[in-house]
Design goal:
10 helices, alpha/beta, ten-stranded mixed β-sheet, Rossmann fold, binds adenosine-5'-triphosphate, binds magnesium ion
Length: 269
């Protein structure tokens, strides 16, 4: 069975692309067949890893065509493929808005690749719109990085949860939404960050699993930026770390084990 995860937030710059790329990288190294899908006009995920072979088409052709041949590019990492963003003018938003089945097309088209992948990870742009809706509706679960600072925490409560509520009626159209996992992201050691992280956990508790703040926390460290510069998954970049804090390899592995307990026995090479 293919698990589809959309990494989303109604706020920009929270760590979506970095998280999508690194999660894809570690899942691929765990032997899972992974497809990344870049649903952002700015093709950051498309160029995150080096491509061994670039397909002629990308997301826009897939959705509007629908073009199913030659839309999958291969990265230099084994088991890791990507559907690149090919919509520099941002025409796809409007196209989806004005097409009757626009918002559910991505869901139906991606299911055509189900036999080829164990995981499909969808990166989105940090703004509400038809394209973000399409990405949310395509997913079995949602992952939302939340930097523990007050503006991001408020935007999570207001924007992200508001969007979930707005899309809830799609359940009756065969496109259920959620569950949503909040990932405290770029955590630092300040008392303020710790207080906000606690608050987020407390506020999500009454949702009974529809919204869960994960136990795993991604720290703010330079390793994530350096790994991005080197176009390397962060678990390969920082395998060990001196001092008490966990290495990126340990953190990313803990995240995978928490999100996907069925991979508990699979080891990294
Ligand atoms: N764990 C981390 N620690 C420190 N910096 C990080 C970490 N993860 C990502 N960053 C940096 O944070 C910035 C934003 O990350 P990223 O581009 O992944 O966010 P985004 O949500 O995809 O943004 P956008 O909404 O523009 O698509 C980048 O400069 C990235 O290198
Ligand atoms: Mg991004």
């Amino acid at each position: 069975m293919t698990l589809k995860i959309t990494v989303m937030s109604t706020k920009g710059g929270v760590g979506k692309t970095t998280q999508t790329a690194n999660l894809g990288g570690i899942l691929a190294d765990l032997g899972q067949r992974v497809l990344l899908v870049d649903v952002d006009v700015q093709p950051t995920l498309s160029s995150y890893f080096e491509l061994e072979q670039q397909a002629e088409h990308g997301l826009s052709a897939l959705i509007t065509g629908p073009q199913l041949e030659d839309v999958i590019s291969h990265t230099t990492i084994k088991n890791l493929d990507v559907i690149i963003s090919d919509d520099p003018e941002g025409a796809l938003q409007n196209w989806i808005l004005h097409t009757p089945d626009g918002r559910v097309r991505l869901k139906h088209l991606l299911s055509k690749f189900d036999s080829e992948y164990d995981f499909v990870l969808i990166d989105t742009q940090g703004a509400v719109g038809p394209l973000q809706d399409a990405a949310v509706l395509a997913a079995d679960m949602l992952l939302s990085p939340i930097p523990p600072e007050i503006l991001s925490a408020r935007e999570f409560t207001r924007g992200t949860l508001g969007m979930l509520e707005r899309l809830q009626p799609m359940t009756y159209m065969g496109a259920p939404v959620g569950p949503l996992y909040g990932l405290i992201y770029r955590m630092d050691r300040t008392i303020d960050a710790q207080r906000i992280a606690r608050e987020l956990r407390r506020e999500s508790a009454p949702s009974k699993g529809q919204i869960r703040i994960l136990d795993t926390v991604i720290p703010s460290t330079v390793a994530y930026r350096e790994a991005a510069t080197s176009r390397t998954p962060v678990h390969r970049w920082e395998q060990r770390r001196s001092g008490p804090s966990a290495s990126a390899r340990e953190t990313m592995l803990a995240l995978v084990r928490e999100l996907f307990p069925h991979l508990n026995d699979v080891e990294l090479p």
